[in-house]
Write a structure and sequence with these properties.
The chain is α/β, with parallel strands linked by helices. About 40% of the residues lie in helices and about 30% in strands. The longest helix has about 30 residues. The N and C termini lie far apart (about 45 Å).
Length: about 240
Amino acid sequence: MLSRLRNSSVPPAVEHRAALLAGKHITYTLKRSSKRRSIGLRIDDRGLTISVPLRASEKWLQSVLQDKARWVVEKLDSWQVCEPTELRWVDGEKIDYLGELLTLRVERNLFAAPAHRRGNDLWLFVGYDSEAAHIEQLVMSWYRQEAEKLFRTRVAQYAPLLMVVPRKITLSSAKTQWGCCTARGTVSLNVQLIKLPLRLVDYVVVHELAHLREMNHSAAFWNVVESVCPDYAGLRSELKAVAIK
C-alpha cells in the first residue's frame, strides 16, 4: 500500500494542457523528465512543447509561461503563416548549411561516390536506380562528417579560453537538446547544429564547455559563458526560437 501511495504522487510524464497567454488560449504538451534542471520551451509544426524537471512546481511553470507569453504567441503565429515545407531529396533542392543554403546537385551514373561540396552546391553521385531515401542518407552522412570536423575545431578554440579540457567530444542525434555535458567530461553536440549559423554553433559549444566548470545554470555558470561569449543572452534567445529538425 505504501509503494502504491508513493507512485501516485509522481506526476505524469506527458500532459496535454491549455493556458491563456497574451490574451489567447494556447494548447501545449507538457513533458516531465528527471534529467532536466530547467524549463525549456520549443515551438515547431506540432505546436508548443514545454519540458520541465520531474517535480517542477506549478508556480514556477506558470511564471515561465507568463514571462514568455508574447514570444510564444508570436512564434506560434509565425508557424501558422509559414508552415515548413517537406524537403525533397532531388536535384535542385535547397538544404541548410551553417545558416546558408546549398543546392543539391544529383548526378546519376554507374558508380556512387561520397557527397562533396563545390561552392554553394553539394554534389551527389548516385546510381541510376537510387531512390530519395538513399540521397537523404548520403546528405546525412555528409552532415555528420562536416559536423564532427567543425565541432572539434570550435572546441579546440574555446576550451583553452575557458580553461577546460573535455574528456571526449561526441555527436548527438537528440530531438530536444542542442548539446549536453556529463559530469565525467563528455561533451555531446547535436549534428543538426551544422545547419545553423556559426554564431549559434559557437554559443552551444561555449555553453557546454562552461559546464565543465559549473555543472549547473547558476549565476556563476553564466559568468563563465559571458567571459568568452558576451552576447550570449541574445544568442540564447535566438537559439530557443529554432526547432531541432
